[in-house]
Q: What sequence folds into this?
């Protein structure tokens, strides 16, 4: 059985959603870590825009023109990251952290249900 039969577009979307939520978490953590840093401007990520970019980029591979080049971000990924003019606000960052945590946990729950359905289907085939 090929991977394509087991892993469909829903799994791919959920996987990429987890990746984007992890990137959001890293930005929020960086903002919180620099709460008292003078001149630091907080960064934010447009989750929906980044997820759309992730889904458009296909299989996730980028073309490398030289073996020593590092893998980069897809075109438009930097446009989804915003640097704010206001200083870091603890309440705003904690709200973003909670929202991102809810998004991440919901996606993990959907992924677990998807795997459970697949496991049940495999179990039924063995009987």
A:
């Amino acid at each position: 059985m090929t991977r394509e039969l087991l892993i469909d577009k829903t799994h791919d979307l959920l996987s990429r959603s987890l990746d984007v939520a992890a990137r959001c978490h890293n930005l929020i953590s960086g903002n919180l870590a620099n709460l008292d840093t003078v001149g630091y401007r907080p960064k934010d990520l447009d989750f929906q825009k980044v997820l759309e970019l992730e889904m458009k980029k296909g299989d996730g591979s980028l073309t490398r023109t030289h073996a020593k080049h590092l893998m980069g971000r897809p075109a438009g990924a930097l446009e989804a990251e915003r640097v704010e003019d206001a200083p870091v606000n603890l309440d705003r960052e904690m709200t973003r952290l909670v929202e991102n945590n809810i998004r991440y946990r919901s996606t993990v729950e959907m992924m677990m249900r998807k795997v459970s359905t697949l496991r049940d289907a495999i179990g039924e085939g063995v009987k």
